[in-house]
Model the fold of this input.
Amino acid sequence: MKINKAEFYKSVYKYEDCPRLQQPEVAFSGRSNVGKSSLINRMTKQKKLARTSNTPGRTQCLNYFNVDDKFYLVDLPGYGFANVPQKVKDDWAELIDTYLNYRENLVGVVQIIDSRHKPTKDDKLMVNWLQASGLNFLIVATKVDKISNNKRAKQKKLIYQELNLTKDDNFTFFSSQNGEGSKEVYKYLEFLVKS
Ligand code: GTP
Ligand code: MG
Done:
């Protein structure tokens, strides 16, 4: 897949405000600050399409991006960030939960985790939920530029173990910094959007 044009379409704060669309949607999910927005920017080759920051919790709504009028990327709010009030956390959780459960346009989820660390409790919950839901998903272990080559195999094993993945699951390492793994993510998007 080649992405020619990607543009911001809409922010959604309440599930009811999700747009009526013909095109399929692919959601990008992951812990706050894991690198969701950076991955979207890398894939669309636009440095500032999705806002990135060092402050976790920046993306607090669903952000829709129109890709070549063919499909939509949906940047989900990051989960698991401690320093926000419980009420805000509950609102995010409800929005994500409703979206993933009910959105008919949704064809698959790119689930992003940090390649450097053991998956968090929230990562596990999220992946368990995806496995039970029957939704198609790809696990992307990002920030791989920050680990040494000989640590990769160990990290991959740990991730597979902790998330109960099998060899049939889709997995790739990724780096928004040097583009490693982009090909795999493009291939996955192509598979989702064509099927
Ligand atoms: P929220 O919107 O707050 O949930 O965060 P996010 O998941 O969208 O993360 P974001 O893309 O804003 O990235 C968070 C920080 O990680 C930023 O400082 C990025 O520059 C950095 N980062 C993201 N991806 C990578 C990567 O692949 N390698 C490195 N070295 N840094 C990365
Ligand atoms: Mg973000």
